[in-house]
Specification:
The chain starts with a helix and ends with a helix. The protein is of the alpha+beta class. Helix 4 packs across helix 5. The strands form two sheets. Strands 6, 7, 8, 9, 10, 11, 12, 13, 14, 15, 16, 17, 18 and 19 form a 14-stranded antiparallel sheet that branches. The chain is elongated, with a radius of gyration of 30 Å. Helix content is 36%, strand content 24%.
Length: 558
């Protein structure tokens, strides 16, 4: 009987996964400009800031109808070279480029506020250096481009400008680098060509050495700094800055589909088009001024057949719809679960996130109420399995006196004791494993809770979302109201479950201790996680109460 129930549970679980993939399919990547991607604004729209660079008189022009480009001269530095900063304002971001190396300097993400004490908007940059730095390896020579002044080919003032084109001649080689901005996304297409390159030629691209903290918990945000990469034949991997010892190099062989640097909610990534890959990635630990590793370096190598290269730069939030639209598994840039648990946690977490986003979009409710409804639905979905487990618990209660009598009667004859106990189990239609199934009501919701723990760690959709007295469900409850409610609901659930049950000191002790342990464990976790767990505990009370009533009816006098 138990095997049939287990098989039924597995079949139902598989059916849920299959139906979810049908109902909530993963969006296919399109090569045309992404205009149907939903814009997510966690806060009220804010106008892009005026440039605060010393000596730069720049005014960012925002337009919802077209992208605009404005070039600004910086006062001369040493020598005859005049660095030039070019600002590009799109619907989602404001980009700054320098002609020195034809590289991006920073990206301001227009729709997300910086929650760190510095305030303003989220800005992706590496202090004192460009966001990317290029070098060319040709004929055994390495040509660093970050000191080379490129000329900007200015677009026709009457045309709609959606691209930047830089040119320069280095060691007699004409080099062209262009940036094309994809409307409605955080993607910039990067293309380049080196005329006259002979032999094997490679492009070296150095990723940002850090990203500034953008969360109220600045230390926690910095601790999430990591480089990520995707081997073409393996799952995505990540290397936290804390795992890179100062001065120690680590080589990740290719081919690689993409590479990225990320913090908790934002990412700068380089993604290859289909059929093209990076050759290898070199990581190196940076100097540390504290226990938290905030600096490292990453250089990715790309072979340039015929002197040409192309890739996409994604600089923006780790927003699921945007990452999915990029393709090539870039939505796994910050995989759920630790490395040894990703295979188990990732599918459950991805399924939970899809359901939460779908409910938010279709029910038109805030994420707080979505989590409450989700917690109730989880308990309803698990009702049959819980009911089966509770029936097993009742059955064990019925045969417990007979088992105790057998154990007492044959305490000096172990073999005879086992034989008689098996007879009792067989007559009752149970087995020694039936006792374990009684633990399922407490264990079944745990995988979902564990998966949501990781979802709240790196899902930007919950960032800055208020609910009732909570200002942000992605961070802990400042008043610890929800953890206390969660512990109280868990205690009531345990108390009802022990009513009319045979005396069991261990179960009673766990009924008191487990809620206290969970309160301490979840007190500093995301308040949304506590909200979900409280809702599903309360939703479980009716079923637990019905079980207690049934247990009272079936209770036999000692």
């Amino acid at each position: 009987m138990d095997n049939k129930r287990l098989s039924l549970a597995l079949v139902l679980a598989a059916a849920v996964v299959v139906l979810t993939q049908i109902l909530f399919p993963t969006p296919r990547r399109v090569n045309t400009p992404v205009t149907a991607v939903r814009d997510t604004v966690n806060n009220k729209p804010v106008q892009a800031p005026v440039s605060a660079d010393t000596g730069v008189a720049a005014r960012v022009v925002n337009s919802s109808l077209r992208d605009t480009i404005k070039s600004v001269d910086v006062p001369p530095t040493a020598g005859p070279v005049r660095p030039e900063i070019t600002t590009v304002a799109t619907k989602n971001s404001t980009y700054r480029f320098t002609n020195m190396g034809a590289a991006p300097v920073s990206v301001v993400v227009s729709n997300y506020r910086n929650l760190a004490p510095s305030g303003g908007l989220v800005e992706l940059k590496a202090a004192g250096q460009p966001l990317l730095r290029y070098s060319i390896v040709t004929q055994g020579d390495t040509l660093s481009l970050d000191r080379v002044p490129f000329a900007l080919i200015r677009p026709d003032s009457t045309a709609e400008a959606r691209s930047l084109n830089y040119t320069a001649t280095v060691n007699g080689l004409p080099i062209r680098i262009s940036y094309d901005f994809v409307p409605g996304t955080y993607v910039v297409n990067v293309n380049g060509r080196i005329e006259g390159a002979k032999g094997s030629t490679y492009l070296l691209t150095e990723l940002p050495s850090t990203l500034p903290a953008a969360e109220s918990d600045t230390l926690g945000d910095l601790r999430t700094l990591a480089y990520s990469f995707k081997p073409t034949r393996e799952n995505a991997s990540g290397v936290p800055f804390s795992k890179l010892e100062p001065g120690t190099q680590k080589l990740e062989p290719g081919p690689l589909s993409w590479v990225a640097v990320r913090n908790k909610y934002f990412v700068v990534g380089l993604i290859n088009p289909q059929g093209s890959n990076f050759s290898e990635l070199t990581l190196k630990g940076g100097p540390r001024t504290s226990k938290t590793a905030t600096n490292a370096s990453a250089t990715v190598v790309k072979s340039l057949p015929e002197g040409q290269f192309a890739f996409e730069m994604y600089a923006g939030p780790q927003q699921s719809t945007q990452l999915l639209a990029v393709g090539r598994d870039f939505d796994n840039v910050n995989p759920y679960g630790w490395s040894f648990l990703q295979g188990v946690v990732n599918p459950i977490a991805a399924l939970c996130l899809k359901l939460l986003l779908w409910m938010h979009d279709n029910l038109k409710l805030t994420y707080g109420w979505v989590l409450v409804i989700f917690g109730v639905l989880v308990r309803i979905a698990l009702w049959p399995l819980n009911q089966s487990a509770m029936r097993s618990s009742l059955k064990m209660q019925e045969i417990q006196p007979r088992l105790a009598e057998v154990q007492k009667r044959y305490k000096d004859k172990p073999e005879k004791q086992r034989e008689e106990m098996m007879k009792v189990y067989k007559e009752a239609g149970a087995s020694p494993f039936t006792a374990l199934s009684g633990c399922l009501p407490a264990l079944i919701p745990m995988p979902v809770l564990f998966a949501l723990f990781f979802v709240f760690q790196n899902t930007i959709e919950f960032r800055g979302v208020p609910f009732l007295w909570l200002l942000d469900i992605s961070v802990k409850d400042p008043f610890y109201i929800l953890p206390v409610l969660m512990g109280a609901s868990m205690f009531v659930l345990s108390w009802i479950g022990l009513r009319n049950a045979p005396p069991n000191p261990q179960a009673k002790m766990m009924g008191y201790m487990f809620p206290v342990m969970m309160v301490f464990f979840l007190a500093n976790m995301a308040s949304g996680l506590n909200l979900y767990y409280t809702a599903q505990n309360i939703a479980a009370l009716p079923q637990q109460w019905l079980l207690a009533r049934e247990r009272a009816k079936n209770k036999r006098p000692a």
